[in-house]
Amino acid sequence: xxxxxxxxxxxxxxxxxxxxxxxxxxxxxxxxxxxxxxxxxxxxxxxxxxxxxxxxxxxxxxxxxxxxxxxxxxxxxxxxxxxxxxxxxxxxxxxxxxxxxxxxxxxxxxxxxxxxxxxxxxxxxxxxxxxxxxxxxxxxxxxxxxxxxxxxxxxxxxxxxxxxxxxxxxxxxxxxxxxxxxxxxxxxxxxxxxxxxxxxxxxxxxxxxxxxxxxxxxxxxxxxxxxxxxxxxxxxxxxxxxxxxxxxxxxxxxxxxxxxxxxxxxxxxxxxxxxxxxxxxxxxxxxxxxxxxxxxxxxxxxxxxxxxxxxxxxxxxxxxxxxxxx
Length: 326
Known about the structure:
By secondary structure, the chain is of the alpha/beta class. The protein has helices at 5-8, 35-41, 59-72, 85-97, 112-120, 132-144, 156-162, 164-173, 188-200, 230-240, 249-263, 273-277, 302-307, 318-325; strands spanning 31-33, 44-49, 78-81, 101-106, 124-128, 149-150, 179-183, 205-211, 243-247, 288-293. Helix 7 packs across helix 9 (188-200) and helix 8 (164-173) crosses helix 9.
């Protein structure tokens, strides 16, 4: 088993021998070559499978640092606002640390798989009658009272943990990729990758795929109307010579299907936004580009009923089965 993230990259993280290590074995995720996508796009496409983290999303990288530091600093509880992945990760790491987690989620806006995780892991889940942004404001206010530590990406320890994905990419490639493509919701992950690459002294172009209609996109993980890190994330993209691409839900869905049917990668719809953005990124042919696949498909099982063909009922007879397959 690979070393815990805090042990593997401890010299590049704000931790010390006094920091309790709260880990579930996060990080060291696969970097998979995508031959079908490479052939179609004329690029050398690699997939950073962050869905292989313990709770099924990239959030675990930041949460191990945030919860470990919270415990070191004497926290008795954590709180987050979430469209789902942060909630599942916060609940898991809080459980591991032996402290309560409070989750504020916009009512009716969180995929069932993510909600199930947070509930099963013992978090106190509260549905806020409002948007994600309103839930985040409430979480920040609660944290300001001193009863809970905020573990959204506004917590700087979150970004410190998430930057380690950039270290792994460069380590495995043996060089910097020419470009990195990823979903753009709140913007924290874009900032984190930029931070990691900057610390390594490399500067790939950043391609950030956001939903054209942020507030009601089918890609629930990036259903964030007002990105908390907008200025910093878009500034990092601009400095890199990259681009922010606004995507229709149809474009995101097409990329989701392509990942599943041609590369065997089942992700939640938002995770396909980086791939979808490549069509408008203007990258030179042959460029090495890493697409970050941020969350597992089982996070959002409802998406399958909307985006994939339904099962067909048949009689248990060979002729009936052959006819249906034909």
